[in-house]
Predict the structure of Helix-turn-helix transcriptional regulator.
Amino acid sequence: MGKREGLAARRKACGYTQEGLAEALHVDRSTIQRWEKGEVEPLPWVRPKIAKKLNVSIRELENLLTPTLDSAQSEIGDLIRSREPVKEFSSQSDLTELRGSEYAQAIRESTQRLITLDNELGGISIADAAARAFKSVHVRLGNGEYESRHEHDIQSAAAELAEVAGWALFDAESHEAAKRFNHEALVLAKLSGDRSIELLIMQNMAMHAGWLGRPREELAISQSVIEASRLSPRVETIFRIREAKGLMGVGRESDGVKVFDRARSALEDGTRDGDPSWSWWVTENEIDGHHGYALQLAGLYAEGIPYLQQAVWHPSKAKVGYRKISAARLLDCLMRVSAWRDAEELTALVTPVVHEIASARTLNLLRETIRQSEERSTAPGYLREALENLKIALDDDPYRF
């Protein structure tokens, strides 16, 4: 990359020194220097904050981050003349040498790549890669291989990586491992003082408890956070969802429905500056999927179908790696109420894209629905044939093309 003269000029025009902008963005001065030199790119969730401080739009910021033509040409010329390979920041040899804010930045970049793989390419499981990445960081933290003045920043970055690993292991149905990673993530978040990541981990733990059939624990975690914290609307939304599911899980369906309404009301309050970067996936579609899921678990299949249909047929623009899980739940509900034609239509749509599903939770839900339909043997022949094709697709070699 070449120097970003535009970024430095805009910073100066706004009256910021490198130290001043670093303080405003809660980063190290060396991070600002590296952005302006073009050595690293600001992470996606940091860019809105930079744009706000520099009083520019995101598009204008992207232009500022583009190296100037003269400096880019000069750098290319220097490289050609020296014939030396370009040194990559994220190479293994570099990572083992990093000790300060650059190490925290490298951890965050690794985390973002994993998140992108999980959400953009749904057919790739990131559980193993995320777990191994965190274990490497965990060893270095235990050995004290970092600069103590950057300890909290590194712990915060490590907590986020552990959270991603915990989520991925949960989605892969590796539940004991997910618990361990969530616990370690929570410890690191508390040590670092990163309340935003701590909240994300707490909602993961509540969700995990609900999935394992522990609704009282899901309810207790969500209510403890709601009662003890002043939450932004989007964060309140996700904890209201967990609270509603917990209430319905303990048989308080009417209370759960009311809390789902409160979740929708909170979301309607819109985004705020205080919303954490991770809350991008908290949408109306997320509420619909969980509302339908809670009704399904309560045995209220007919009531759950409209919410699950909304989640399946009108997805949000926020791409999440588990986006087909509502389809698996909807198929079960349709089978339960003998909506054979709707079930056949959904099965025909899911079958060709099964190879794109890495979520073990989703795949296992589909397998369980097929197993139960085989036991009941009440479905008409055309649907049994469609389900048999889905079963073949589920059992197919995922590496065959």
Remarks:
- Confidence is low (pLDDT under 50) at residues 68-93.
- The radius of gyration is 24 Å.
- Residues 335 and 343 are 6 Å apart (CA to CA).
